[in-house]
C-alpha cells in the first residue's frame, strides 16, 4: 500500500475539521512537521486543541497557528519561547493545560496502547493534581492521569517506506514516536520515501500500522530557536 500524498494540504484537506485535537511531534523546533503545520494554517481549521511538548516560537512551528488564532487550547509542558502565546494566555484568549513533560509523553503513549488512564507521583501536592483522583500505593500518593488520543497526529521523520514505517534521526526521536501512536489518523512528514522492503526491520522506530498518510518534504528549514556557539580560543 502506498500511503503517499502529493502535498501536505492534500494529506489533510479531507480530515482536518474545526474543533479537533491535533497532536504535534517535536522538541522545541527540532523534529517538528513544518509543512504539515503550514498546511493546517492554510486550510484554516478553527478552535483547535494543540497537544505538543512546546508551543513553537513567534511566527514558526505552532507559533504560526497561534498567530492566526486557530488554537483555542494548548496542552504542553513548556511554552517559554513564544511571546504571542504569553499575550493570549494572560489576556484570557487561550486555554492552557500545563502538563509535566514525562506525564505528557506517557499520556500519548498510553493512548496509543489503548490504556485509558494511569497513576503517577509527578504533580502530587501541586496545582497539577487539582481535580484529579489521588490514590495511595505502598504508602505513596499518586494522581490519576487520563491518556490522550488525538483526532489527528502530525509527526516528522527522516525516512519512510511506502507502507509508512518510519525512521527518525537524533532529537526528532523524542515526542514523534508517541505522538504517532496516539493519533486516530497519523500523518507523517518525511525527507525521503523508499520502496517497501528497503528499510531493515531493526532500524524502524514507528511501525507503519500507526501511520495512515505520508508527505514528502525534502528540504525542511530546521530552524534553531536559540543558537549557542563555543568561542574559539
From TrEMBL:
Source organism: Polynucleobacter hirudinilacicola
Pfam family of the protein (one): CoA_trans
Keywords linked to the UniProt accession: Transferase
Signal peptide: none
Ranges that cross the membrane: none
Protein name, UniProt field: Succinyl-CoA--3-ketoacid-CoA transferase
Transferase as UniProt keyword: yes
InterPro entries: 3-oxoacid_CoA-transf_A (IPR012792), CoA_trans_fam_I (IPR004165), CoA_transf_BS (IPR004163), NagB/RpiA_transferase-like (IPR037171)
Record PROSITE patterns: COA_TRANSF_1
GO molecular function, one term: CoA-transferase activity
Entry-linked NCBIfam families: pcaI_scoA_fam
Family: Belongs to the 3-oxoacid CoA-transferase subunit A family.
Amino acid at each position: 500500500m502506498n500511503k503517499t500524498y502529493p502535498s501536505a494540504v492534500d494529506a489533510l484537506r479531507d480530515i482536518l475539521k474545526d474543533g479537533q485535537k491535533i497532536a504535534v511531534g517535536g522538541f522545541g523546533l527540532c523534529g517538528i512537521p513544518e509543512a504539515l503545520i503550514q498546511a493546517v494554517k492554510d486550510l484554516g481549521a478553527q478552535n483547535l486543541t494543540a497537544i505538543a511538548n512546546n508551543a513553537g516560537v513567534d511566527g514558526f512551528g505552532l507559533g504560526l497557528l497561534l498567530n492566526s488564532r486557530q488554537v483555542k487550547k494548548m496542552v504542553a509542558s513548556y511554552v517559554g519561547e513564544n511571546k504571542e502565546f504569553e499575550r493570549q494566555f494572560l489576556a484570557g484568549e487561550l486555554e492552557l493545560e500545563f502538563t509535566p513533560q514525562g506525564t505528557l509523553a506517557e499520556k500519548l503513549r498510553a493512548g496509543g496502547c489503548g490504556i485509558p488512564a494511569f497513576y503517577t507521583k509527578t504533580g502530587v501536592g501541586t496545582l497539577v493534581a487539582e481535580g484529579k483522583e489521588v490514590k495511595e500505593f505502598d504508602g505513596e500518593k499518586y494522581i490519576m492521569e487520563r491518556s490522550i488520543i488525538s483526532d489527528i497526529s502530525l509527526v516528522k521523520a527522516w525516512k519512510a517506506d511506502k507502507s509508512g514505517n518510519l525512521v527518525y534521526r537524533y532529537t526528532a526521536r523524542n515526542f514523534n514516536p508517541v505522538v504517532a501512536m496516539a493519533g486516530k489518523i497519523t500523518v507523517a512528514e518525511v525527507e525521503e520515501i523508499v520502496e517497501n522492503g528497503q528499510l531493515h526491520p531493526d532500524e524502524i522506530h514507528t511501525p507503519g500500522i500507526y501511520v495512515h498518510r505520508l508527505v514528502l518534504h525534502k528540504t525542511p528549514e530546521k530552524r534553531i530557536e536559540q543558537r549557542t556557539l563555543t568561542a574559539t580560543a
